Amino acid sequence: MSSKRISGQQGRILAVVIIAILATAAGIWSAHLVLEQRQPGISGLEATRFPAPREIGTFSLVDQNGAPFNNDTLKGSWSFLFFGYTHCPDVCPTTLSVLNSVAGQLKDIPDNIRFVFVTVDPERDTPQQLAGFVKYFNRNFTGVTGTPENIDRLTRELGIMHLKVDADGNGDTYLVDHTASVLLFDPDGRYHAVFSPPLNAGTISHDFRMMRQAYR
Amino acid sequence: MKYLKPAIFSLLLVLVSTATAEPALEIGSPWIREAPPGARVLAGYMTFFNHSATPITLVNVTSPDFESAEIHRTVIEDGVARMLPVARLAIPANGRIALEPGGRHLMLFNPARPLHAGDSTTLIIHLADGAEISLSVPVMPQDGIQNHPHH
Predict the structure, then answer these.
(1) Chain B: residue whose CA lies nearest to A174
(2) How far apart are the first and last CA of chain B?
């Protein structure tokens, strides 16, 4: 009777010990999983590189040829994304010229590297309008547009601000304030790093090489 | 060869006499950035040098080739680029103000004719004292563009 009671107590203690061991193991295992996704830091970067690359929600846009541009399109190669609009006379041409220089500086890298201009002004920036615009800077650059809702879905997800400013109330001559950062996506289609203005081609190329080298 | 162009144009300094015989306002290396196809706003850049002991204020810019022109200032705050109109541009006594990519710039709206690199147009700078300065301004390609369709 008494030995049975003791063995019952021992059973409870054993159960507690087993649960404690399992909980500890689960804790270590999950911490390991989290740590595994974090990438080792790189010192000396101007770019803001996320400790863990960010998966982004589903988006569905079109390129300047009318072909789909979505999460799958981003996979398989590094992509630089810049958000702007074709009626932007100062910042957007300046940034696309910088990205054209980056493309030139990274020519020795055998990977395909994609440069994508995403409009924040889909009402004026049709695929045809974008085609002439992006090709002017580099014939390999991609221009992306879509419905205002689908553009907004992506910009919200990525924290890209854009605001139409119709200073003179003159209808189609409005300007658009917008985030002027360049975003880097890795070959897994994840948001990997961001370059904030003022942008410099040499800095972007240098940082990209470092991040590419560190990428598993 | 393209890289020589800015150097050549930077030699085109425009000296302007105001009321006095002294050249008070000097306008250095004016240029208009060729617009990509479809764009209806072009940006213009130049540097103003005030060699006088009093401020010089620029109140307007006009051109026979553009519907209108404004001076804007690109401001980047928290990574967001905004363009703020500049109604009057005061060039301080013995000072300089540059209109340059990513900063203050001329906005030239709705060109009356296609303007390509190699073309030039006339800009008229209107000062607060009523003086007008007429400039011949070259259209130049985007910086660093290699595969340019007009060459």
Answers:
(1) B41
(2) 12
pLDDT, tens digit (0-9, with 9 covering 90-100), for A18-66:
777 777 666 666 655 555 567 788 989 999 999 999 999 999 999 999 9
Nearest by Cα to A151 from A126, A170, A184: A126
| pLDDT at position B150 | 41
What does the alpha-carbon distance between residue B99 and residue A102 come to, in Å, rounded to a whole number?
A: 25
Residue contact A87–B109, C-beta within 8 A: no
Domain range list for chain A: 1-37, 48-214
Q: What is the mean pLDDT of residues B57-69?
A: 96
Q: Which chain B residue's Cα is nearest to A181?
A: B79
User: What is the C-alpha separation between B93 and B97, in angstroms, rounded?
Assistant: 11
> What is the nearest CA distance from B67 to chain A, expressed in angstroms?
12
Mean pLDDT of chain A: 89
Nearest CA of chain A to the CA of B116: how many Å?
12
CB atoms within 10 A of CB B87: 8
H or E segment to which residue A35 belongs? helix A2-37
At B52, is the secondary structure helix, strand, or coil?
coil
Domains of chain B: 4-140 (2.60.40.1890)
Comparing CB atoms, the residue among B42, B74, B146 nearest residue A91 is B74
Note the CATH number of domain A48-214: 3.40.30.10
Name the pLDDT band for B122 (thresholds 50, 70, 90): very high
DSSP for A100-131 reads HHHHHHTTT--S-EEEEEEES-TTT--HHHHH
At residue A138, the 3 state secondary structure works out as coil
Tell me whether residues A97 and B107 touch, CB distance under 8 A. no
List residues bridging with A48 in a β-sheet.
Answer: A194
Distance from CA of A161 to the nearest CA of B (A): 7
By the 8 A CB rule, do B28 and B49 touch?
yes
